Amino acid sequence: MNKSTHFSGQPIFAQLLKLLDKGKISRVAKDQKSDRYYKKFKTYEHLVTMMFACLSNCVTLRELSTSMMACEGRLNHMGIDYSPKRSTISDGNKNRSSAVFESIYQSLYEKYGPLLSDSGNTDNLPKGLKLADSTTIGLFKEILKTSGRKRIDGKQKGGIKAHTVIDADRRAPSFIHFTSAATHDKCLLDELKLEEGDFICFDKAYIDYKRFYKWTQQGISMVTRMKDNAVYESLEELDISDKCDDRIIKDEIVIVQTENDNKEPVCLKLRRVAFYDKAKDKVYVFMCNKLDIEAEVAAKIYKRRWYIETYFRKLKQNFPLKYFLGDNQNAIEIQIWVSHIVMLLIEVLKKKVTKKWAFSNMVSMLSTHIMSYIDAVKFLNNPEKAWSEKKKQDKRDKQLKLKFSSA
Fold it and tell me: What pLDDT sits at residue 155?
């Protein structure tokens, strides 16, 4: 009998599923009636199936169905008792609303968000800082309208755009909104529910001076880059402290003409900060509606915006978002939501591991050993020791078996 503490009575995938709250998933399914008209393939089973597809890199329904069929003796560890057929998965992806998977993700974010917080805020950034951006995922056919010119033959592939908000001190999105790739980024601003005291950072694709004026009246702060063709009037040039970062080359208060909700002309005061990047030999100009912010902090806030770009790269590099298990918008959204769910759960697992792992290496390891009976945390902390103990124990078991057979 193997007594190694690194090996578990459950596969790695089952240990990851333990991070889910089945009771909460059942309540969400009941509230949204997502199990209505389903005798089998309930919401939890659907979620587990899509998570298995995500982690095992299955790119077709046939591959997914066959892979799960091969694991049929271990499906009880996943909380399901059968391997779903291709048609069952296809119908579920088409007919079960992606909104239920969004709710499941949000419930997990609420539960594990504090665990994912990064307390090491060494840049003195504002508390509750939010980062906003979008990423476009190309599709294999014209399901959603994409931007750009059509091909010579008149055909054009589609694209879905995920407008995303991430809290700067966490490792997962707090808000995601899907549109066609052709939709302008500024549509995200219509979906945001910001309150007084909130602070948000985004790039210049989101510039809307009328909205910035409204936010200023509501006590909502923002930092973004100023467009090269921006029209403004310099009101006051501020002194740059000797202690300030020497890459800050200009700091001033400017006025931009805009209008309020009643279409009356108004003046919007902004802090304008010019920052020289020595490595790229380029000047970046930031603007902020919080006039008392330090110039150096405004630059650091915008620099932190690249964290969301890192998140997008991790998502696209580690999960199969080039091939989708459905040719409709609902199926595509489900697969993206499940990818976010898996990514969040792996980040939670990563927090429990003391050994430092690159995220891509951890995903690769979990994908390779998805159905292996290994204690995930102990194995990740010391994989060499785990395999060494396994080999020694296997040798002892073999010797013991030979001893009994000879007797």
Answer: 56
3-class secondary-structure state, position 271 = strand
Provide φ and ψ at 160, rounded to 5°.
-115, 135
Do β-strands 248-259 and 265-277 pair in parallel, antiparallel, or remain unpaired? antiparallel
Question: What is the distance, to the nearest Å, from the Cα of residue 272 to the centroid of all Cα atoms in its chain?
Answer: 31
Name the DSSP letter for residue 60. S
Q: Which two tokens stand for residue 59?
A: 């790119």
Q: Which residue has the tokens 């694709």?
A: 205
Question: From CA 298, how far away is CA 280, in angstroms rounded?
Answer: 19
* 82 vs 74: CA distance, rounded Å: 10
H or E element, residue 44: helix 43-56
CA 258/CA 19 separation, integer angstroms? 49
Please write the tens of the pLDDT for every residue from 139-177.
Answer: 766 665 555 555 555 555 668 899 999 998 887 899 999
Give dist(CA 200, CA 167) in Å, integer.
9
- C-alpha–C-alpha distance, residues 376 and 190, integer Å: 42
Cα gap 79→327, rounded to integer Å: 28
List, for the chain, all residue ranges whose pLDDT scores fall below the cut of 70: 1-9, 119-123, 140-158, 386-394, 397, 401, 403-407
Q: Which two tokens stand for residue 271?
A: 């802090």
Q: Is the dihedral of CA 282, 251, 124, 210 positive or negative?
A: negative
Tokens of 110: 């609420």
Strand order in the sheet with 173-180: 173-180, 159-167, 129-138, 199-201, 221-225, 282-288, 265-277, 248-259, 233-237
Phi-psi region of 148 (alpha: psi -120 to 50; beta: other; left: phi over 0): left
Please report how the helices 43-56 and 22-32 are oriented relative to each other, as an axis angle in degrees rounded to 10.
120
Residue appearing with tokens 């994908």: 367
Domain boundaries, the chain: 12-106+325-386, 219-292
User: What is the total residue count of the chain?
Assistant: 407
Q: Which helix (H) or strand (E) holds 365?
A: helix 359-368
Token pair of 79 as six digits: 């909380």
**How many CB atoms within 10 Å of residue 181?**
21
**Pairing mode of beta strands 199-201, 129-138:** parallel
pTM for this entry: 0.87
Strand partners, 214: none
